[in-house]
Amino acid sequence: MSIEIQAVSKSFGTFTALKDVSLKVPSGELVALLGPSGSGKTSLLRIIAGLESPDSGRILFDGEEATKRQVQERQVGFVFQHYALFRHMTVFDNIAFGLTVKPKKSRPSKQEIRDKVHNLLKLIQLENLADRYPAQLSGGQRQRVALARALAVEPQVLLLDEPFGALDAKVRLELRRWLRRLHDEIHVTSVFVTHDQEEALEVADRIVVMNEGRIEQEGTPSEVYDRPATPFVYDFLGSVNLFHGRVHEGTAQMAGLDLSSPENASAQDAPAVGYVRSHDIAIERDGNGSGAIKAEVRYLLSVGPLVRVDLVLSGSDRTIEAELPRDEADRLQLQVGEQVYARPRKMRVFVEDYQI
Amino acid sequence: MVGKGLHKKERKGATVTEPAWVRWLLISVALAFLALFLVLPLAAVFAQALEKGWEAYLAALKEPDTISAIRLTLITAAVCVPLNLFFGIVAAWAIAKFSFPGKSFLITLIDLPFSVSPVVSGLIYVLIFGLQGWLGPWLQEHDIKIIFAVPGIILATIFVTFPFIARELIPLMESQGREEEEAALTLGANGLQTFLRVTFPNIKWGILYGVILCNARAMGEFGAVSVVSGHVRGSTNTIPLQVEILYNEYSYAAAFAVASLLALLALVTLAVKTVSEWKMQQTISAAETER
After folding, report:
1. ipTM score
2. Which residues, 6+ apart, have CB-to-CB distance to A103 below 8 Å?
């Protein structure tokens, strides 16, 4: 089922959660709503589910008006950050709940319910824990039960609110890969909320980046990551360095470098901000040719396969951060206090007015 | 998880513990206090009640006026407790699960009977329904008796006891949040199914606790009932009023025999309260580990 959100606004008291948001989620896709807390992503998810109603705007399911439909009629599966399992019921009863509350006419027989629950238990690989209570399960197991419970009623749409937010790093990684595989199998239209950019980039077919109740950008993970539409998206996805300078008719001047910036061809000597991702900064021993900035190594830190280098630009006390693969760092044999050259391989320039 | 918790507790106990003599002193002071002000009077009630033997005890309870007082007390409790149960669940539900304007005002209102002297609560009803009251003349015209009759006793008791169940449920329901109910709704359950299958099992021990407290107070209420009852023997006397009358007539054995019923009720209440509190604690900590 496809979802269409048309000009939805929502405020809670004086806080505006959503401002005129419109979005289309095509049938069968896995879409991530990505943004910092307070960006309105959870409100949007709850409005799609029918747990909140929008102040204005419409929600369409498969092109049909669904704004006024009750939660129960929307046929959505909702997975909560804190699982929201029924604590007084066993795993089996939790998963069976949605089937047992159906009206008599459409309720499956006891045997059908049992078969279905066992199939779902197999799917979430918890077949031998059917009689446990939620309190006896680990976080990852609880979230899988919550997912199975939501899938039991065969929802048209699966909505997940920070589904891995309460789990520790390793379980989170496993579970999100599992979710991706699951989605490839069952292809139910899914929307999930996250503030973790890595999670969104890895799991989603499309990413919707939200900020302050608005959509900043939507696109495939590589579109959003490689061609951020706004400074916010640049800032939010990956670690990034900021340069201040000016841009004039397609050429930006930043930190003493002349860089071409064709997207700002019409700019007339405007103040601008340049964004360079940490891994787009190369470190060189000799700065032959133009395009490199003299800098001093201030700090070195190995983070797994990467080495993070803090550099102080000479002639100022500004610090930038570079990330090198470990073998590259080994080859350079960097020492703290050394003079090197930093070369931004890719810079995205935004005219400053844009930000305001 | 459990092991970790225990470990923490042990460590905490080891660093903040007091010397043994301080602990024993504090414990014995507390126990002595309890013995003097609780156990001793309770024992005295039963001793006095049985002073003239088992036969006299039973005879005192079989006295028609006493039987009528017991019946009235049971009727009062049987009306008040279900009404307050309904009100308590509705109010707690509204307060814990929704936000609406005037919410804190409602909470204050629920607490009102706690802060008003029971005598005043009784007088309020006399002011409203009494002969000189606002509705008095109209009631008399239609031959409806409220004050100095059973309806007045029930009204006054409802007023005095209505915070008990709501007050018990509000913190419990607040601690559990709304997510389980929301999950039930997204799974297609209607409101009633959600209440019966999700909300109720989580609050049943709190409900029992509240009902027990409410019942004990409904049966034992003296001040408010005393004002509106008119003390008509065999017709508008409840157990506490009957005890007072017997006592004032110097029939001590009978007075204490009837009083022992209330004391027994208190003991049962205590037992049920302990069990339900313990069960409730379990549900709350289960809710917390889930977070």
Report:
1. 0.79
2. none
